[in-house]
Amino acid sequence: MKVKINRKDLLSGIQRVQGVVERRNTMPILTHILMEAEGQSISLFATDLEVGIQGSYAAEVIEPGRVTVSARKLHEIVREFPEGPVLITAQPNHWVVLESGKSYFRIVGLPPEEFPVSPSTQSEEQIKINPTLLSGLIRRTLFATGENNPQYILNGILIQLEKNGEGEGLIRFIATDGHRLAVSEGKVSGQWHDRDAGIILPKKAVLEIKRALDDGNEAGEPQLLIGENQLIYRWGTFVITSRLMEGEFPNYKQAVPASNTKKVSAQKDDFEGGLRRVSILAREKTSAIKFSLEEGRIILSASNPEMGEANEEIETPYEGEGFSTGFNARYLLDALSALQHEEVTLEFKDALSPCLIREESEGFLTVIMPMRV
Amino acid sequence: MILHVDMDAFYASIEERDRPDLRGKPVIVGGSPKGRGVVAAANYKARAFGVHSAMPASKARRLCPDAIFLPPRINYYAEVSEKIQNIFKNYTPLVEPLSLDEAFLDVTGCEKLFGDSEAIGKRIKQEIKEEIGLCASVGIAPNKFLAKVASDLGKPDGFLVVKLEDIQGFLDPLPVGRIWGVGKASDRVLAQKGIRTINQLRQQPRQILHELFGKWGDQLWEFAHGRDGREVIPDHEIKSISNETTFEKNLDDFDPLRSHIVALTEQVAWRLRRHNLSARTVEIKIRFADFKTITRSQTLPKATHTTQVLLRVALDLLKTNLEKKHPPVRLVGMGVSHLVSGELIQGELFLDEARQKQQRIDAATDLIRSKYGESALKRGGGEAHK
Fold this sequence. Notes:
A: DNA Polymerase III, Chain A, domain 2; DNA Polymerase III, Chain A, domain 2; 3 domains; 7 helices; 26 strands; about 20% helix; B: alpha+beta; Alpha-Beta Plaits; 4 domains; five-stranded mixed sheet; four-stranded antiparallel sheet; globular
């Protein structure tokens, strides 16, 4: 293999696969990047066996071929190279030479045959999705996923697809860590099979898709392809493949309260600011704050035996019976950050039951379980 | 030095304070005298007729027909209590509330700021009178035990300081019943030995008391000498909560023991929840007629304050550790430790229904208790239920 590629393209290609490169050395090949030169491009591929990322970049292919090199060393070297072309040359016994200007690096690779095969990216089930919509679905649900939750399945996002007509339908993202729930949906087009349960995508894959969307600037619209036990995200030449999680996702509908009649509205900015300020004195581990509702006002308060106490009032047109409950302030702040409108409405039943916040016009709802005072 | 501040007839005094028409009249706060309620608090006018707390309200009415009966407003009393505690906290962070109406304060080291302990005690008493409009009795002594005895002795409107050099002179003439924890049962045992005053108790060899009461005997002996090593522990540093009952008559059968454990667990769980705590370890204590005492504990995977969960563990411990043929039992205790400190407990969205139901039961009983007092509601199978 012999390829000439612009340093800037190479560096961004390396950075885009970094997220799945194995840091521990349990399987050395997984700490490497596979580079494959063919036609007029070079593709970079890395995987941790759960999630794989592949991107193709324009290059002058002098001689096609494949090599693997340590992702970390490659990144360190290319990062320090000056702007300009980089020449990558394969040598016998898996040596790889990197040249730029007057710099010369010769690093040792591994046999490319050992690299896990990149999964097939063919599937009949193809969904076209607007990149802004997909970003929104992720942004409004990712916060509610579990973080190393012992209930393994909660570390994923459930994706449901509903048909509304020929080639059209709804896509719905659902995430929960057992304490709060977020559901976001939007319109998509494409072809897919009916399935009751939906598919569950690991959080890591969702994060990588989000990063890819943030980088953006590909041609056309992203596609989601559902293959056997895997989901493929493809936008232009950039591909993320992820294994699906197996297990039973909790019945989220059961957690969405149906009869929360106490509706408490407030200006989102006021509420958010109050939460941020009061939670400064909340206990760090739980961010617990007290939420007291009275006619015309919400009182947020926090106290910490080692520090002191804080409280703040927020205006609300609420006129019904009041109550007091507790919340993890972070959960409320996360939920607020997913909202579009300037006014937020919290829907309650009582102090012990889940609080519902929704923006129906945006296809979003979130449920937060209070803390027991 | 330690201060014990005890509000005089707290609930009744609050009602009197708020309603001038009640002043000078006997006031009883508690259940209705028509029903089966009990007296939660009585002012000194009512006490003069022999009325005391925990007495059936119907009996109180017979003793004092002119008394004015009022339903308790616990939430309101709790607010007043919080204001009083804020006064304490201006003087020392080491405040250990025992209930809504009494607390220990450790003022050691605060003397440079506010004057000696006597001056601090006077100022606190004064501030409670001026700012809250209520009367407190204050006991000041080198340790908790003496401070409490001192505030009790001074009541009402008491102010008593026990100096280090006066301890023996202060304690000696008092009846043994003044000692914290000496109830009817211990009183009787001591009386049989001719021990009526603390002086007589102090003259006993430690060994004799140990033989009579086990470890509690050693503790008694220490108290009689005016010694108490317990520290003032602020609310958020509570390490454990426990409760125990000494029976009037030793018990042989499992069922009554079980009932006592139910009642004790109920109280401990309520106290846990009241302090916003959850516990990981459950312990039971069994003392046999021969004063041999065993304690057995079990640690749970997750901290809880659900009565049902704590009860199941406590009863399991009782069942597995009480051999078929055991000596008669004179005391059982139930306690919790490994507490998760005063934090709110995050609710679960996907609770199975059984757990959800238990939490609702606890919340409902706590609410009723906070309105009508601790004895308003008890679990079936509990001691009071029989």
